[in-house]
Structure formats: C-alpha cells, structure tokens
Amino acid sequence: xxxxxxxxxxxxxxxxxxxxxxxxxxxxxxxxxxxxxxxxxxxxxxxxxxxxxxxxxxxxxxxxxxxxxxxxxxxxxxxxxxxxxxxxxxxxxxxxxxxxxxxxxxxxxxxxxxxxxxxxxxxxxxxxxxxxxxxxxxxxxxxxxxxxxxxxxxxxxxxxxxxxxxxxxxxxxxxxxxxxxxxxxxxxxxxxxxxxxxxxxxxxxxxxxxxxxxxxxxxxxxxxxxxxxxxxxxxxxxxxxxxxxxxxxxxxxxxxxxxxxxxxxxxxxxxxxxxxxxxxxxxxxxxxxxxxxxxxxxxxxxxxxxxxxxxxxxxxxxxxxxxxxxxxxxxxxxxxxxxxxxx
Amino acid sequence: xxxxxxxxxxxxxxxxxxxxxxxxxxxxxxxxxxxxxxxxxxxxxxxxxxxxxxxxxxxxxxxxxxxxxxxxxxxxxxxxxxxxxxxxxxxxxxxxxxxxxxxxxxxxxxxxxxxxxxxxxxxxxxxxxxxxxxxxxxxxxxxxxxxxxxxxxxxxxxxxxxxxxxxxxxxxxxxxxxxxxxxxxxxxxxxxxxxxxxxxxxxxxxxxxxxxxxxxxxxxxxxxxxxxxxxxxxxxxxxxxxxxxxxxxxxxxxxxxxxxxxxxxxxxxxxxxxxxxxxxxxxxxxxxxxxxxxxxxxxxxxxxxxxxxxxxxxxxxxxxxxxxxxxxxxxxxxxxxxxxxxx
Lengths: 343, 343
Prior knowledge:
Strand order of the largest sheet of chain A: 3-10-9-4-5-8-6-7
Number of strands of chain A: 10
Helix content of chain A: 40-55%
Shape of chain A: globular
Structural class of chain A: alpha/beta
Distance between the termini of chain A: 44 Å
Largest interface: A-B, 60 and 61 residues
Strand content of chain A: 5-15%
Oligomer: homodimer
C-alpha cells in the first residue's frame, strides 16, 4: 500500500518481477484495491500472486511509535509476520521507512550479537560499487555499532558480489588514523584491531573526497553521516542535470550536441539511477527486510522483489547469524577497551 | 611558500591580483626564492610588492602543535603577525590548513564571545550561493558552537552579498524539528530561540537533499559533517566528469556532441570550480585569515588576495565584533538551557 505511487505502481512492479524475473510475490494490503489493480493485467496466468489482506494503511506521516502500537493490521505488520512465520522469503516496502524499521525490529527481532541493525545500500563508484552503511537507522552511534556494521556489510557484499574478503573502510575527513571526530577516531582503533584479528579486511579511513573514486568495498559510518552522504550526492546530481538541461534549452547547438551525446549522458544517469538498485536492506534483523525508495517506480520495485529472492536463495540470514556469532565475543572484548566519550 | 604548486604559483597569483584587481600584496617567505620568481615578470613596475623574509617552511605534513612551538619564523607566523600589527589588511595561504588555523588562533586571537572559529565557504546552488560552516575546524561541536556559526555566517553573507537578513538553516537529515542526531536536535531548539529573538533569520532544517536546490543563505553544521558535505560533492563531481569523458573517448558521436555542448558543459564546470572562490575565511579570529585550497592555481590565489582586500574594506572584523558582542549574553543564556549530551 505504500510508496509515493501507491498500490498501482507497487502492483505494476510485482507484475514486472513475475514476468521479467519469474519471481512470485505475495501482495499484502487491501484485497479489493489489489484485485482492481490486477485486473489491469488480464493476460497474467491465474495463481501468479497470492494476496494477504491488511485493513490498515500506514501513511508517510505516521510516527513509528504510533504504528507499532496502533496499526497492527497494516500491510507492513502482516507482510513482516509472513516472513517471520516462514511463509515468505523476504519483505519489500516502498512505504514509510521509519515504520518498516520499527516493525522489522519488533516482528523479526535482531540477530543475536547485533545491537543496532543498519540500512545499507550499494552506490556506484569509478571502480565498481561500494556498500555504505548506516544510512539513517542510527543517527548517534558508538564505535561498537560501526564494528558490527563492518561485519554485516562484509557478509552482504561478499554474498552479492562473490568477493571473498571485501575491503572495509571508515568514512572520514582524512586519511590518517588520527583524523576525524571523536567517534571515528575511537572507531578506527577498534576497527584496526578487528582487522588484525582477521574478522574483517579493514583498510583504514576512506576520505570523503575518495569515496566515489577508489573507496572501499564496504564503507561504515554513523547513520547521520551516511544519510548526509547519500542525500548530498542526490542533491549534486540534480543540480548538475538541471544545470546542463537549462543550458541545452537556451542553446540550439547544445541541443544538437545532447542528441549526439545521448548514449554518454544515458550511461551516466543510468549508473546514478537508484531505481536499478531495488532497495536498501535493513541488515541485522532476523529476516529479509528491504526498504525501497519512496519514489520507487515499477522497475525499482521489481528489482527490490528480485533482491528479496536473491538474498533468500543465498541464505543471507543464515550467513549473518553465523558470522556475527563467530565474532561476537571478540567485538565485546574490543568494546571494553574503548575509551569513554570525550565530551 | 605553501600550496601544492609552491612559491612559483603563489607569486604568479599575486602578480595576477596586482594586474587584474590592482591589489598590492606583501609576499612573505624566503626572499631569495621570491625574488627569483618575481624576475619572471620583468615588466612589473618596481614597488609592486613588498617582501618580508621568513626563514622556515611549514610542510603539508607538519603537525599544527609542532608548528606553534617550533617554527616561529615561518611565512605563516610572519604573515599573520603583519595582520595583527596592522601592517597588512589580511592573510592568505594555500599551505597547511591546520598550521594556518593554529597560528591564526595564537596570533590573531579569537573575537570576544566566540568559542570556536570556523572555516566557511560559498558553494553554488541552483538558486544562487550558500555559505556553509564549519568545514572542519571543529569536528565535535556543541549547540553553542553552531549558534555562533549562525551569527558569524550571517554577518559574512550579508556583507558579501548585500542581503540584509540572510536566511540561516541547520544542515540535517530531515525537515522536521524532531529529526536528526543529538547535536542537531539540541541545536534546532536553540537556533529557533535565537531566531525568535531576531539575532538571526533562522528558517529551520535544511535537508541534505535540498542543499544544492533551495537551501538557505547560510547553512550551519559541525565541522565533520561540513567537511563530508564538501568532499563528497567534490567526489561526485569528479566521478561525473570522468564518466562522461570516458564515454566521449570511445564514442565518436559523443565526441562531436561534446563539441556542440562545450558551452553547456563549461558553464557547469565553471560554476563548480572552487578556484573562482579564492578561499575559505577562518571566521571568528580577530583579523582576516583566508585558507586557500592546497591545489589552488594562480587564478584562485589572485581571487583569495582580492577577497582579503574586499573583506578588509568592508570592515568584516569590526562588524563581526559588533554583532557578536550584541548577542553574546543571549547566546550564553541559551547555552544554559541546553540539555546535557545524551550519550
């Protein structure tokens, strides 16, 4: 029921996932609304979708706490419960992010050994892709959180990309170990120790100016910094495209040039298009929960659904549990050596 | 003596400032090296430059603390002392930023009422320009610091742009007052109070995704977040240009297109070129001190020198002192109502 495009776009995405990726979805929401939407695709074989009814709708403005208490029969509750009960492989929503996180925590629970689950996403770089986490689930972090992000991010990147020992970097404002704020300086010490132990392949600080050039496979940061990074990128991109488009509008020569450059411009904007990434996994809860962009189109939703299936086939939850339980004692030991916040 | 290009580029910049902007500079550094450089410009009228000799050179790797104790006869020390003694209107350096900040603090001292001076810079946006501060002088901030940044930023923006009551926003990850991390939530409360008092024109949170679209005239944040914002912008820009260039290289049609689009692409890259901004003022010390980009070219250095003269003519230091002393009591009152850090 969620997302800026509402059920119409979500259903179109599920239809696309069924056709293009042969992934079968369970549609959760108001049965009547869903059936009306499905009637737009009369050629679909019967039984392509299961529908689970959910009465209540969570709006983009609903506060997470209110959702937890008040809207127990929302599509988010019902969908996540299907995952918990093993009736669905994973959950995808383009709806209210705060509500999806809160319900995922309550219904799926955390993986044992993880204090704070994190939102992670792949971003394109000049040499490939980087996974960055957290993107906003935890706005104030302790070093221990960043260590756990490093362990979870490594598992996820490795599973998605087939890289055995992905590099892990700490997003920072300088290359040297002594650079940064209180959090990054303390985290650097502990991440180095974790790297020495072989639990992650820590490669040190990733300076923000290198992030899109030659950063690390996995880049960890607190959720405030991660969100700023993601959204500033979006903002620069919008300004750049609008500035070039504006020039083209008033300059007939540029207009002709743009036609010739179509492929070049398209290749870049395709690279920068978040729609192809499907969604951002909420890593650290004990089940697959994927957060889509509010303005996800049908293509993005189809990719999000495919992502659920892919992660489930690769047994991400089993692998996260195994990896975290292996390093949990060591993480806790490291935490005791952390110095108190110097404020 | 500083900057990636060394004295040769700095002297070329000073020559450019003299020719283009009619601004006379005092060159501080190794007299012999400077005179050798000046010999490259035989047509310069005699007396275009004064030279002050400084024996010692601060390298990019020197730690600020070491510089303060050990290199008392560096060009940074000598130059800032000229400002303090009223023999120069302002100081500009493209050298070691940490050393310039440390020496500025020690020699010029802080403006009374300012706890932490901040580095500020103008960034282009879709609707004009935004001043953002702090960019890295203070990686861990208290709300009081952000309030002082707001007051100083308003004075600076107003003076540079002729805007009477510039809008001040708080860089954050959401629009609503309740969004953000501990620092931004506490700062929002205090900035709102300061706005009600009329000391600044506070307009609330500026979400990162709106920063380059329709942010505020002045945007305040801690130095870690500001540095990440600036450097991620640089990183995205480099990736975008390189991605488009890469396509052009292998695609003859795109190559032809780029010729037609020359003006459009140039207009954008000119807008994004930090060289035209000269440098970033270190706001809050009791004298003009401008920090140039390490890789500043002669054009950037000339603009930095012009900036010193412009700010001096507009009496920025007098105006900052007046404005800060007017709001200092109120700032301190606000600080007492701030809640303790919740860590």
